[in-house]
Design brief:
This protein is mainly beta and about 170 residues long. It has one domain. Helix content is about 10%, strand content about 45%. The chain has one helix and 14 strands, in the order H-E-E-E-E-E-E-E-E-E-E-E-E-E-E. The strands form two sheets. Strands 1, 2, 3, 4, 5, 6 and 7 form a seven-stranded antiparallel β-sheet that branches. Strands 8, 9, 10, 11, 12, 13 and 14 form a seven-stranded antiparallel β-sheet that branches. The N and C termini lie far apart (about 55 Å).
Length: about 170
């Protein structure tokens, strides 16, 4: 009985210890308030205060998640399925290797050809960068295909889930 319970516990620990992985297909540059903004940083929208936001990514609880980076303040805002937070250390997406990025309309978790995955969750599911217009801004959010929505939250505003949104696509 104890051997079976130990085996089940060990298997459970291995399944949840799967490391998340970063996107290696695109150019990501480390950033924080003390670093200069790269010339070709990808613009993602603007926040309710009028600041431009750039496409970024953060590592949070072994997940790699999209982030909207306000370079003037050095803060990267990101969302999970249930919460929103911010970090001061992030990576910025940079247009390079003869690549450009565009925002394409999408819906219901549909996979757009060339969609930019920032990395994976601890469950090894790819995470994509999405955005939607809300609260007088265009905000970057998190798209996990199994959720089929773009998850966005900004500071004290309510967590919102959009079934129609734009997804970042590499050309």
């Amino acid at each position: 009985m104890y051997k079976v319970a130990g085996l089940v516990l060990a298997l459970f620990a291995v399944v949840y210890a799967v490391p998340s992985t970063y996107d290696n297909e695109h150019v990501w540059i480390a950033g924080n308030l003390s670093y200069a903004v790269p010339d070709k940083a990808v613009l993602g929208g603007f926040d309710p205060y009028g600041f431009n936001t750039y496409v970024g990514r953060v590592k949070y609880l072994n997940n790699i998640l999209p982030a909207r980076v306000v370079v003037e303040t050095g803060v990267a805002y990101f969302n999970t399925e249930t919460a929103s937070s911010k970090l001061l250390v992030y990576d910025l997406l940079v247009a390079g290797n003869n690549r450009t990025f565009v925002w394409a309309r999408s819906f219901d978790g549909f996979f757009e050809k060339g969609a930019v995955a920032v990395g994976t969750t601890v469950q090894n599911e790819r995470v994509f960068c999405c955005r939607a217009k809300t609260d007088g801004a265009i905000l970057i959010g998190t798209l996990i295909p199994s959720q089929k929505v773009c998850i966005i939250k900004h500071e004290s505003l309510a967590l919102r889930k959009f079934d129609k949104y734009e997804v970042l696509v590499a050309k």
